[in-house]
Write a structure and sequence with these properties.
Alpha-D-Glucose-1,6-Bisphosphate, Chain A, domain 4; about 150 residues; single chain; alpha+beta; about 25% helix; 2 helices; 7-stranded antiparallel beta sheet
Length: about 150
């Protein structure tokens, strides 16, 4: 199991941060364009527990993949969790935490993931998957810094 933790100070109110991240369509805004990320499900204005979101992505070698996640837990203006139901990972558990601090909101991403596929998954992880996950979150951090 791999763990990625990333924190970012956003110079905005908790209300503005929550509104942005609780709006599922905004996921497109913070995803690298080279993923060719396309949400294929109908989306509500705001997320809710049990929301299923389906996507088409091209994360590696321009190979298209279907991905399905569920918003499993929400504590408004504190955190929400999305988990993969089907897709490229054996396990994907992503926690988004928000905390009001001096100067804005401290946002913490905590991602637990496992590629699976025994030795092939281990090799894919070493060769490109772990680096790609870090790149996606680094892109997200840059875009959020510019956006806010």
């Amino acid at each position: 199991m791999q763990v990625l933790q990333q924190q970012q100070l956003l110079p905005i109110s908790i209300e503005k941060a929550w509104y942005f991240f609780a709006t599922p369509r905004n996921l497109n805004e913070i995803t690298p364009p080279d993923l060719t990320f396309e949400i294929t499900s109908n989306l509500p204005a705001q997320m809710y527990e049990g929301l299923i979101i389906t996507y088409k992505i091209k994360p590696f070698l321009n190979i298209p993949m279907d991905w399905c996640t569920e918003i499993t837990h929400i504590s408004e203006k504190e955190y929400f969790i999305d988990e993969q139901r089907s897709g490229p990972y054996k396990i994907w558990h992503h926690e988004h935490h928000f905390k009001t601090v001096e100067g804005g909101v401290l946002m913490t991403d905590l991602v637990y993931y496992d590629i699976g596929f025994s030795v092939f998954g281990w090799l894919a992880g070493k060769l490109f998957v772990h680096r790609r996950v870090r790149e996606i979150f680094a892109y997200r951090q840059r875009i959020l810094a510019e956006y806010f």
